[in-house]
């Protein structure tokens, strides 16, 4: 996954972050939950841990399990939210997987999988929530792309393609939804310390930034605890 399961769930359920202090608390929750992935906890146990940690911070949440690469799952998830809360203010599309291999080694199944998870999920989720946002003339959709969607990444053609498509999708939809007072934003982060990148060492990271124009410090647990966040120069 582009981000760990715990991180993806937390991103989906936090509705508002109104202060730096809350961001700090959220970061500590992430750190605590990520530690649990080193154990043999089941996905259900991890979900309950997330819920407990957030509720301890007086953040009310509702967790729904869905495969966002499948249209039927997305429609069921959105229907549940609308039936219970009658509105959707923010959608964050951040599901993602990576496949690092030569283009000549990619088979059709692998190509379709990365497009389904990284790109089609954005289409399905956005398509499902847009009518409700248009109805209220209010809403915000945040799509998570990648620096590889801008520059392209060697041995990551499928990933780069899906992320570049998200950028184009976001630009076009922003123009279309602007008159309805709906904001569409796209974020293209560099390398971040998540489960997907846990096998990268410093040499691997340096190799991915050969031109030296982008330097990224990857936040570790101790940096989060000291309120030090990712820095891009």
Description:
With 233 residues, the chain is mainly alpha-helical. The protein is 52% helix and 9% strand. The chain contains nine helices and five strands; from the N terminus they run ααααβαβααβαβαβ. It has helices at residues 5-13, 20-36, 43-56, 71-85, 108-136, 148-151, 157-177, 202-208, 221-225; strands at residues 90-93, 139-144, 182-187, 216-217, 231-232. The protein has a three-stranded parallel sheet, with helices on one face. Strands 4-5 form a two-stranded antiparallel sheet. Helix 1 packs across helix 3, helix 2 (20-36) packs antiparallel against helix 3 and helix 4 (71-85) packs parallel to helix 5 (108-136). The longest helix has 29 residues, at 108-136. It is globular. The two termini are 26 Å apart.
Count of individual beta strands: 5
Radius of gyration: 18 Å
Q: For the largest beta sheet, what order do the strands appear in spatially?
A: 1-2-3
Strand residue percentage: 5-15%
How many separate helices? 9
Judged by helices, strands and strand pairing, the structural class is: mainly alpha
Mean of residue pLDDT?
78
Helix-strand sequence:
HHHHEHEHHEHEHE
By oligomeric state, this entry counts as: single chain
Euclidean distance between termini CA atoms:
26 Å
Low-confidence stretches: 8-20, 227-233
Which word captures the global form?
globular
Largest sheet descriptor: 3 strands, parallel
Helix content: 40-55%
């Amino acid at each position: 996954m582009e981000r760990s399961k715990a991180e993806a769930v937390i991103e989906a359920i936090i509705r508002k972050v109104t202060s730096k202090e809350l961001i700090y608390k959220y970061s500590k929750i992430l750190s605590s939950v990520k530690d649990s992935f080193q154990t043999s906890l089941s996905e259900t146990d991890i979900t309950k841990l997330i819920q407990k940690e957030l509720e301890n911070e007086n953040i009310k949440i509702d967790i729904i399990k869905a495969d966002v690469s499948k249209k039927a799952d997305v429609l069921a998830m959105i229907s549940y939210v609308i039936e219970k809360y009658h509105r959707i203010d923010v959608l964050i599309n951040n599901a993602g997987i990576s496949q690092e291999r030569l283009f000549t080694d990619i088979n059709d199944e692998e190509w379709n999988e990365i497009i389904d998870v990284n790109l089609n999920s954005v289409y399905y989720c956005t398509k499902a929530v847009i009518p409700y946002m248009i109805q209220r003339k209010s809403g915000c959709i945040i799509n998570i792309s990648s620096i590889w969607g801008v520059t392209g990444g060697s041995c990551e053609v499928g990933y780069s393609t899906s992320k570049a498509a998200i950028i184009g999708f976001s630009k076009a939809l922003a123009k279309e939804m602007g008159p309805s007072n709906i904001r569409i934003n796209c974020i293209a982060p560099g390398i971040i310390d998540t489960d997907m990148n846990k096998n990268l060492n410093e040499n691997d990271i340096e190799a991915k930034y050969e031109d030296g124009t982008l330097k990224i410090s990857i936040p570790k647990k101790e940096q989060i605890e000291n309120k030090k966040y990712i820095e891009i120069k």
